Amino acid sequence: MTYLCVDVGSTWTKAALLAEDGTLLGTAQHETTPPEVMNGVAAVTEALSAGDATVLACSSAGGGLRLAVVGQERLVSTEAGHRVALSAGAKVVHVSAGELSNVHALRAARPDVVLLVGGTDGGDEKVLLHNATRLARARVTVPIVLAGNKNAQPAALSILEGRTVVPTDNVLPDVGELSPGPARAAIREVFLSHVIGGKGLSRGPRFRDLVRTVTPDAVLSGVAVLAAQEEDGAVLVVDVGGATTDVYSAVSTMDDAPSRTVALPADRRTVEGDIGMRVSAPGVVAEAIAERLLPPDTELAEQARRRGDNVDFVPATDEERNTDLRIAELAATIAIRRHLRMIDGRLGPKGAATLVLSGGVFRHATSLAGTEAALKRNLGPVLKDARVVVDREGRLGPAGLLAQAGHHDTAAALLAAAE
Questions:
Q1: Helix, strand, or coil here: 286?
Q2: pLDDT (tens digit per residue) in 256-291
Q3: What's the distance, Cα to Cα, between the start and end of the chain in Å?
Q4: Strands 234-240, 245-251: parallel, antiparallel or unpaired by DSSP?
Q5: Fold type of domain 2-62+199-214
Q6: Which of 64, 169, 402, 408 lies 20 to 30 A from 156 at CA?
Q7: CATH number corresponding to 65-195
Q8: Whole-model pTM?
Q9: Is 97 helix (H, G, I), strand (E, B) or coil?
C-alpha cells in the first residue's frame, strides 16, 4: 500500500508519496488551480504515478480556517478558547470576552466559524447564554462550535435553534483544567463539513470529501509524532512564510508542571501575523529594533521595505539571499520568543531537544551554520542543547496526516528516516 499526502495551499499544491513502511518515494508540487483545485491535485498525482495510492489531504487554500472566539472572561475561558483555536490550525480573526453588546466587529472579521465558550461545568451560565442570544438575534449564520459550560449547553442550543451548532465538551471543564481535544475535533469537523465546500475551490464534492483537516492542524499532529520520539525534551518548529510565522511545540513529558490558571496542552501552536518574509518583512525589522536585536538605524529596514512593497521578490544574488536569511533568522527569533512567553517558557526540564526550521528560505539555503549560531545566541538556554534541522522535504505535514488517519507507525518511520 502507498499513501499520497497532499497539501493544497493558496499558492502551491504539494504532495508526498509514501510506502507503508514510511519510505518517502517521491515529492511533487504544482500551482494551485482555483476555481478547480482538483486539477492541481491531479497534476501532482500524475507526476508521482500515484493513481492507486490512498490519498490523505489537508488544505489552507482560500484563507484556511478563519475563526472567532467568543468567551466569558479574557484570562480564563476566552484565553482557553483562543489556545484551542490556534492548536486546531485556525487563524483567529476575532476574540471577545464578556457579554457581547454588538456583533459588528465579529461580522467585520468575516469568520468561517465561531467558537462559543464560557464558564466551567456547573459554574456561571449567564454570560454564555447572553452571548448565545446575541449571536442568534444578530443572525450570525456561520457554524458555531459550542464548547462552554455543559450544564448551560441545552439552553444555548435551544436559543440557537435553526443555526448550525456543533456542541462538544467544555474547553475548560474545571478551573485549571484545559481540555482541548474535543473542541479541536469539533472545529476540524465543522471545517470539513461546512467550510471547505464553501470556499469556491472546487465545483463538485470531490475536494470537500478528500480533505481531512486544515494544514496547520496536520503539521501540529506531525510535531507531536516527532516529540514522541524524543526520550526527554521538546520539539520546536518554526515555519517562516511570506506573511506570517508559525511556531509549533510539543513535549514528550511534562513532569512537575506548575499549577496554572489555564493549564497548557502538550502540543501548541502560535501564529505571528505581523512578521514574515515579504508583506510582513517591515514588521520583522520593527520588532527586532524594539527587542534590541537590531540598532534603530539599521540598513536592513530599507531591504525589508523593498520586500514588503514587492511580495513577488525573488533573490537573485548572494547578497539578496543572505539578506533574506537574516530577515528569516530575526522572524524565527521573535516568533519563538513570543511562543515561549505564551507558555511561560515551559518546554520540559531540558528545553528544546530539537528545533526544526521550515519555510522556503531555510530549505533553499546552502548553509545554516550562521543561522543556528544566531538563533542559539538570541534564544539562550532554551536551545542550549538543541539540534537544529531543516524540514527540507516537508515531512511534518504528511506525518500528521498519517497519524490522524491512524497510521502512527508509518508516520513515526517517515520522521525517523529524516534524521
A1: helix
A2: 343 343 444 567 888 888 899 999 999 999 999 999
A3: 24
A4: antiparallel
A5: Nucleotidyltransferase; domain 5 (3.30.420)
A6: 64
A7: 3.40.50.2300
A8: 0.85
A9: strand
